[in-house]
Structure formats: C-alpha cells, structure tokens
Amino acid sequence: MRDVREEYRAEALTEEALHADPLEQARIWVDEAIRAGLPLANAMTLATVRADGQP
Question: Are 30 and 41 in contact (CB under 8 A)?
Fold first, then answer.
C-alpha cells in the first residue's frame, strides 16, 4: 500500500471559502477537477449529518 500512496497538497477547506449554495459549490469543484484533467472528475462521495454532527 505504501507504494501507491499519494501526497495531496491543497489549501485548507474553510466555511468562509465555500459558496452559500451547496449545489453551486459542487459545480465549482467539478469544474476545477475537469480543468485539472482529473480522471472521473464527476465522481464523488456525499455524506450528510444533522446540525449536531450525527448521521
């Protein structure tokens, strides 16, 4: 597993940097992935929680 590990370097994700509309934020991320030439740029995992952080 160590041989396939990748180091990812990006800016930290903060609430202040997010778009107010979650769907627009998703569009922004997908567009960035497409521009970066990432394979399967539209693939993602979505998890939701309540306001108290519980599933």
Answer: yes
pLDDT tens digits for 26-36?
999 999 999 99
Residue 50 lies in a domain: yes
Query: Exposure string (b/e) for 9-28, b if CB count within 10 Å is 16 or more?
Result: eeeeeeeeeeeeeeeeeeee
Q: Are 31 and 25 in contact (CB under 8 A)?
A: no
- Calpha distance 7→17 (Å, rounded): 23
Residue 36 lies in a domain: yes
Structural domain count, the chain: 1
Domain span holding position 54: 19-55
Does the pLDDT of residue 8 top 90, yes or no?
no
